Amino acid sequence: MLAIFKRELRGYFTGVIGYVFLALFLAVAGAVFCYTTLFSMSADVSAYFTMMLLFCGIMLPILTMKSFSEERKAKTEQLLLTSPVSIPAMVFGKLLASYVIFAAAVVFTSLYFLILTPYATVKFTLLLGNIVALLLVGFVFIAIGLFVSSLTENQLSAVVGTIGIILGFLAIGIISTLIPDKYWVRYVFDSLSIFTRFSTFTNGYFDLASVVYYLSVGGIFLYLTIRIYDRRRYS
């Protein structure tokens, strides 16, 4: 797994995807920070992380689009499948490479709030909770991206497919707001909504059930990716 991780991490920066993602992420984070804090003269971190959640649904597919689709297009997939590396190790190595870049970008941009400390009171416990929540959601989005990338050799298709699934998960939370509280369907939608569970953290509550939910959803997509490559290896 370590060899796959190093190979993937190096690949992000021998090409342009790593630089494009980081540049885009830093630019968007800076703009969102200015809009939600500096321009509004507020030290509330919730608006910043809520908007970053929505933007991550668009930016993270750029990071994962090449993970498996490029292997198929470049005809190097067979080398991976016949190498002395297990399928789970291959998938987790690619996951870790993407996640390290994403996590580093999140932690670095979260330091923007240190600018506010001389002028306002920043709730660092709330800030930490939002960082953890965004990292958990990022894990889910990356797992979805890896799954979609394993289905196609076209990177554009991988991006579009990943964004489509992510928007579907986010739309569940929007639909639930249109359902009256008295219907049990709303409770089901809220339980499945990435956005609704994320709002728990932005309101200052650390919800263990939401942590389990994010890890479970990400784990399901990773399991599906592993199953796809298990079938390819033995076919």
Averaged pLDDT = 86
Span of the ends, CA to CA: 23 Å
Number of strands: 0
Taking Cα atoms only, what radius of gyration do you get, to the nearest Å? Answer: 19 Å
Shape type:
globular
Spans of at least 5 consecutive residues with low confidence: none
Label the structural class: mainly alpha
Quick structural gist:
The protein is mostly helical and 235 residues long.
Q: Can you describe what's shown?
A:
- By secondary structure, this protein is an all-alpha fold.
- 78% of the residues lie in helices and 0% in strands.
- It has helices at 2-14, 17-38, 46-64, 69-73, 77-82, 87-110, 124-149, 155-177, 184-192, 194-202, 208-234.
- Helix 1 (2-14) crosses helix 6, helix 2 runs parallel beside helix 6 (87-110) and helix 8 runs antiparallel to helix 9.
- The chain is globular, with a radius of gyration of 19 Å.
- The model has no long low-confidence stretch (mean pLDDT 86).
